[in-house]
Structures are given as C-alpha cells and as structure tokens.
Design brief:
- The protein is 80% helix and 0% strand.
- By secondary structure, the protein is mostly helical.
- The chain has one domain.
- Helix 2 runs antiparallel to helix 3.
C-alpha cells in the first residue's frame, strides 16, 4: 500500500504544469490533497522521515497550482 502511494506521489511530482486547463488544475489540486492526507495517515504510525519529505514535495507543487488558480490580484 505504501509503495503504491509513493509511486503515485512520484508521478504527481514529476508531472508538468504547463498547458493545463483550469479544470485540470482543480483536479490536480484535489489529487494532491488526497495524496497528502493518505500519506499522512501512514506517517502518523511509522514516523518515517522519507514520507515527510514526499509530503513536502507534494505540498510545494500543490501551492504552485493553487497560486495559478487564484491568479494575480487586480490592484
């Protein structure tokens, strides 16, 4: 189970952000959230530092996606 999650996480982090539609970005953001939550459940039990590193990478990518979704503020 852990191997499957780590494989999905690796694929998610390696995915390119260019040429994504808005709905693709929303789907990617939701996928990132689901991955983080499921990895976190395993992390609570094992306290494996590798899992924490993976969650940090996914969170970084998720923030970039959400920044693009929200757009730049109109001043």
């Amino acid at each position: 189970m852990t191997e499957d999650l780590l494989e999905k996480a690796k694929e998610f982090v390696g995915r390119t952000l260019s040429h994504m539609s808005t709905s693709d970005r929303v789907a990617a953001s939701r996928e990132a959230k689901a991955l983080i939550l499921s990895i976190n459940e395993i992390y609570k039990e094992t306290k494996d530092p590798n899992l924490m590193d993976v969650m940090k990478e996914i969170t970084e990518k998720k923030r970039k996606i959400e920044k693009r979704l929200k757009g730049t503020p109109l001043v």
